[in-house]
Design goal:
The complex is a heterodimer of chains A (469) and B (196). Chain A is α/β, with parallel strands linked by helices. In chain A, 32% of the residues lie in helices and 18% in strands. The chains are: A alpha/beta (469), B alpha/beta (196).
Chain lengths: 469, 196
C-alpha cells in the first residue's frame, strides 16, 4: 500500500463523496461556535428555515466580547457586545446546542476549553468560525477555521465541501534550548519562511523538538499556523496526547477508550509518505523571539536590532517595511531589547493556559511590575483560572502588580471596548501585531509569556533568560 | 448569491502585501449580529481621518474620485490573512467589489469570497496595468486590461461552478442528505467515540 500522511488517512476516513477536481464532501465531527461569529451563523441558518443536523456534536462558548473584569455580567465594554451574547445564547438554546455560558465553570476561550474538555480528539474533523481553530490539530485532529457561511453548511449538513489542501511537514530536529518556547518556535518559523510560508497547506509539525513539547506547548505552536497562512496544523497523536486526554469530560472511557487509542495510534504519517513541501530546521537555531513590525513575520531574536530592509527584502516590500517601522515608531538598526513599554498582556488562545501562567509566575514571583506599566493577565478559561488560583498563581500575579481577570479573549483584539492607548507599546503573549489590533494606534510586540513577564518587571523589552526564574 | 460570468469595471489598486481582515473590517466596525451594514466600515482604519470618524482621508485610494465606481480590487500577496471573520467578504461585497486580484489569498478568506459572489483572481496584481477598465471573464478564466494585457488565472472547478451559477452550497449538499446519513451510520460503528 502506498505510504500515506496522517492527513491523508483522516481525509479518507471522512470522505463521504468525491466531488471531483480535488474537492471532497467531508464528514464533520465537531462544530464549535463563539458569540462573535456563531450567533450570526445560527441566526442565518434559522432565517433560511434550516436546522442543526446534529446538535449533540455542537458546542458554543462566550469568549470574544465578554467583559473580563471581576464581577462581570452580560454588559460589555464593547458598545453592542451584549447583543452578540444574547443572540448566541438564544440561538444556541433554540438549536439545542451545548452552551458554556458566562456563569459556566467550563466557559473560556474556545481553543482552550475544547482540549481541556476533550471535545477535540485525535482523528476528528473539527471546525469553528475562528481562524485559530488550527490550534487543535495539536491533539491529532484535523481542525480548521472557516467563515460563518461555512459554519452554517456544517451545522445544516454535518459536512463541508473542501478543496483538498496540500501537505507540508515541518521537522524540528534537536531540542529547544532552556528558556526557548513553542511561541518562539512559531515566531522563528514566521520570520524565516514568511507569513504566507505555508499557504493553504496542512502543516504537520514533527521531529524531536516537537515530540518533546507538552500538549499545551503543542497547542501554542499549532495556534500560529494561521499566521503562517496554513489550512491547518497537525501533530501526530502520541502517548503525551493520550495521557492528556484520558479522563477528561468528553473523552471516551472504558473499552471505548481502549478501542479509540488503538485507532489513534495509526494516525501517523507512514515512513516514506510524500509531502508536497518539507521544511527542516534545527531547534538549536531558535532563540526567544519578539516581533518588531505589524505582521507576525516581522520578528527577530531578542537581542537583535530591527533589521535593515536589505535583510528582509525578499519578504517585505520597501513600502510595507517603511510603513511598519513608521507605525511602530522604530528605525532600522534600533535595538528592540530595552525598548520602554507601556503595557504587558498575558492571555489569548496562544498563551493563556496553566503552564503559560506558571512560567510567567516563576519570573514574577517576588518581583514588581515597573512603575507606569499596565499589566494584565487573562487566564484562557475559567478552569485555568481556578487551577491557577488553587496553586496560588493569582497571588503572585497580583502581588507583582498584574490585574488578574476572568477568562476570555480580552485585549488580544480591540472590538470597540477596552483597549490600550494610541501609540502605547505593548509586549503581548498574543498572536497578531496588526495595526490597531489591540486598540487604535497601538504598537504590539508579540512574545512568549515569560518574555512578557520579564519585560513587565523591567519596564522595557527584556530577555527572560537574564531575569531568571 | 449573484451569479458571476464576466465583469468589466474599474480596478482600484491597493497593492500592499498581507492586508489582514482586521484592516478590511476592523472588529470595532462589526456592531450588529448580522451580515449587513458593513460597507461603511470597510477599510475604516485607512479610509477615514481618525478612528470613529467618517471624514474621508483623501490619501486613501478608495476616496480618489477616479475609483469611486471600482468593482475590482487589486491587492498585494496573502490578501485576507488573519481573522476568519466573514464580515470582511460581506463588507467588500456590500461596498460593491465583485472580484479581488492578488498574487495569493489566505485560504479561509478565499472560501468566504466564493460563498459571497466575489471572485478571487490569483494573479500578481503588480503586473497589471490598472489604467482603464479591466475585464474578468470567469468561464474563460482570463483577465484583460484596457491596454490589452491578457492573463489567465487558475480557480478550482467547485469554486468556479458556485460563482458562475450563484449556487447555494447548502442546498447542493442537502440533496445528498441520504448519502450522508448512510455514511454516518456506518462510521458510528467504526468510530463510536466520535459520536456524542
Amino acid at each position: 500500500m502506498t505510504p500515506r500522511t496522517a492527513f491523508e488517512k483522516i481525509w479518507a476516513d471522512h470522505l463521504v463523496a468525491d466531488l471531483g477536481d480535488g474537492t471532497g464532501l467531508l464528514l464533520i465531527d465537531r462544530i464549535l461556535l463563539h458569540e462573535r461569529t456563531g450567533g450570526v451563523a445560527l441566526n442565518s441558518l434559522a432565517d433560511a428555515g434550516r436546522t442543526v443536523a446534529a446538535p449533540e456534536q455542537v458546542f458554543a462558548t462566550m469568549d470574544h466580547v465578554v467583559d473580563t473584569r471581576t464581577g462581570r455580567t452580560d454588559a460589555t465594554l464593547m458598545p453592542t457586545g451584549t447583543r452578540f451574547i444574547a443572540a448566541t445564547r438564544a440561538a444556541a438554546r433554540a438549536a439545542g446546542l451545548t452552551l458554556f455560558d458566562l456563569d459556566d465553570p467550563r466557559q473560556g476561550i474556545v481553543h482552550v476549553i475544547s482540549p481541556e474538555l476533550a471535545i477535540v480528539l485525535p482523528g476528528l474533523t473539527l471546525v469553528c468560525p475562528d481562524s485559530h481553530t488550527c490550534s487543535q490539530g495539536a491533539l491529532g485532529a484535523l481542525a480548521w477555521g472557516i467563515g460563518s457561511t461555512e459554519a452554517e453548511h456544517a451545522l445544516a449538513t454535518n459536512t463541508l465541501r473542501v478543496g483538498k489542501p496540500r501537505t507540508m511537514r515541518v521537522t524540528v530536529t534537536g531540542r529547544l534550548g532552556t528558556g526557548v518556547t513553542a511561541k518562539d518556535l512559531a515566531l522563528h518559523l514566521l520570520d524565516r519562511f514568511g507569513s504566507a510560508g505555508a499557504q493553504g497547506h496542512v502543516v504537520e509539525y514533527a521531529g524531536e523538538a516537537v515530540s518533546a513539547l507538552d500538549v499545551e506547548a503543542r497547542l501554542t505552536l499549532c495556534n500560529m499556523a494561521t499566521e503562517f497562512s496554513a489550512f491547518s496544523a497537525f501533530i501526530a497523536p502520541d502517548e503525551v496526547a493520550f495521557d492528556y486526554l484520558k479522563g477528561r469530560a468528553y473523552a471516551p472511557d472504558g473499552a471505548e477508550w481502549e478501542r479509540a487509542v488503538e485507532n489513534w495510534r495509526g494516525l501517523v504519517s507512514d515512513p516514506g509518505a510524500v509531502f508536497d513541501a518539507e521544511l527542516t530546521i534545527d531547534a538549536a537555531d531558535v532563540a526567544p523571539m519578539v516581533s518588531w513590525g505589524t505582521s507576525p513575520q516581522q520578528a527577530v531574536p531578542l537581542g537583535r536590532p530591527v533589521p535593515h530592509h536589505s535583510a528582509v527584502a525578499g519578504r517585505d516590500t520597501r513600502e510595507a517595511y517603511d510603513r511598519a517601522l513608521d507605525y511602530m515608531g522604530l528605525t532600522a538598526g534600533q535595538a528592540i531589547e530595552g525598548l520602554p513599554i507601556d503595557a504587558a498582556f498575558i492571555g489569548s488562545c496562544t498563551n493563556s493556559r496553566l503552564s503559560d501562567l506558571r512560567r510567567a509566575a516563576a519570573i514574577l514571583k517576588g518581583r514588581r511590575v515597573a512603575d507606569g506599566v499596565k499589566a494584565i493577565c487573562v487566564p484562557g478559561s475559567t478552569m485555568v483560572k481556578a487551577a491557577a488560583e488553587a496553586e496560588g498563581l493569582d497571588r503572585i500575579f497580583r502581588d507583582a502588580g498584574f490585574e488578574w481577570r476572568e477568562s476570555g479573549c480580552s485585549m488580544c483584539f480591540f472590538a470597540g471596548g477596552e483597549s490600550f492607548g494610541t501609540q502605547e507599546r505593548i509586549i503581548s503573549s498574543t498572536n497578531r501585531n496588526f495595526e490597531s489590533r489591540q486598540g487604535p494606534g497601538t504598537r504590539t510586540h508579540l512574545a512568549s509569556p515569560e518574555t512578557v513577564a520579564a519585560s513587565a518587571v523591567a519596564g522595557r523589552i527584556a530577555d527572560p533568560r537574564r531575569t531568571g526564574a | 448569491m449573484t451569479p458571476f460570468t464576466t465583469l468589466t469595471a474599474i480596478a482600484a489598486p491597493l497593492i500592499r502585501d498581507n492586508i489582514d481582515t482586521d484592516a478590511i473590517i476592523p472588529s470595532r466596525e462589526m456592531k450588529s449580529v448580522g451580515k449587513t451594514g458593513l460597507a461603511d466600515g470597510l477599510f475604516a482604519g485607512w479610509r477615514y481621518t481618525a478612528i470613529g470618524s467618517r471624514e474621508p482621508d483623501p490619501s486613501f485610494i478608495l476616496n480618489d474620485p477616479r475609483y469611486a465606481e471600482a468593482q475590482i480590487l487589486l491587492a498585494g500577496a496573502n490578501f485576507g490573512c488573519g481573522s476568519s471573520r466573514e464580515h470582511a467578504a460581506w463588507a467588500l461585497a456590500e461596498y460593491g467589489f465583485r472580484a479581488i486580484v492578488a498574487a495569493s489569498f489566505n485560504p479561509i478568506f478565499r472560501g468566504n469570497c466564493v460563498r459571497n459572489g466575489i471572485v478571487p483572481v490569483e494573479i500578481d496584481a503588480t503586473q497589471i496595468d490598472a489604467d482603464g477598465p479591466i475585464t474578468i471573464d470567469l468561464p474563460r478564466q482570463t483577465l484583460t486590461s484596457a491596454s490589452g494585457q491578457h492573463i489567465a488565472f487558475a480557480i478550482d472547478a467547485e469554486a468556479k461552478a458556485m460563482l458562475i451559477g450563484g449556487l447555494d452550497a447548502i442546498d447542493m449538499t442537502l440533496a445528498r442528505a441520504a448519502e450522508i446519513a448512510r455514511f454516518r451510520d456506518a462510521d458510528r460503528n467504526r468510530r463510536p467515540w466520535a459520536y456524542l
